[in-house]
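Forum > Structural Biology > Help requests

Title: Can anyone predict the 3D structure of Two-component system, NarL family, captular synthesis response regulator RcsB?

Hi all, first post here. I have the sequence for Two-component system, NarL family, captular synthesis response regulator RcsB but no way to get a structure on my laptop. I'd be grateful if someone could post the structure tokens.
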Amino acid sequence: MPIRVVSADSQPIVNIGVGEVLRQYEDIDLVGTAIDSEGILELAAHHTFDVLVTDSHAIRARLDCCQSVIPLIRLHCPELRIVAHGGMSHLAQLAAMERRGINVLLHRNDTVRHLADAVNAAYIKARYFSPSLAHAQPAACESNRAHPALTRREREVLALLLSGRTVCEVANAIHRCKQTISAHKARAMAKLGVARDADLFRLAYEDGFLAFCLSPQDGDRLCVPACRTGGTSAP
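Reply #1:
Sure, ran it for you. Structure tokens for Two-component system, NarL family, captular synthesis response regulator RcsB below:
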């Protein structure tokens, strides 16, 4: 039985290229493509698939750049495996993604030659760093041992701060003192390997990376974004 795959990328030309590469393999069935989270959710509502190949922007919830729709997709596809596809290279980013259970990382430089390897690794739940990232794999393991994952509260605080709220406003919203919020923020930024607010906002808005790290985990409250048609295509 072929591996059923959905390709999602916020850049349409990249999405087309990934789709063409996937179609070359007889053991891979390209279920469809999407350019945003609404398109992915629409595909998930009508199809079952095994692996999602996605960049960080395509999985972001429409109304919240720091939340992904992966937990919502898993309501339809509980055994979904993820291939994170993009230009990521920062060690702390790679380690944080692994801590969230995203163990297959494919750099854009390796798409043509190594996409099938990444898909197969994800399908069998193996750990895989594509060649352009292989040098970072041992260091990412060490970083994971040294730094635990973001806690639920740390994720909540970062998401609120990145939505534009001040430390005081976040403190009032979750009924904590300002010093506690500042401490959560500092610990979370250290785990993500950033020292300045500007770098934190870049991770969220330019790289889109925080959609992987701040998305809800099992047991967290889910907020279902509205879906619209037009964001998907099926072969």
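The beta strands are 3-8, 28-34, 51-54, 60-61, 64-68, 81-86, 104-107, 128-129, 232-233. The first strand starts at residue 3 and ends at 8.
Shout if anything looks off.
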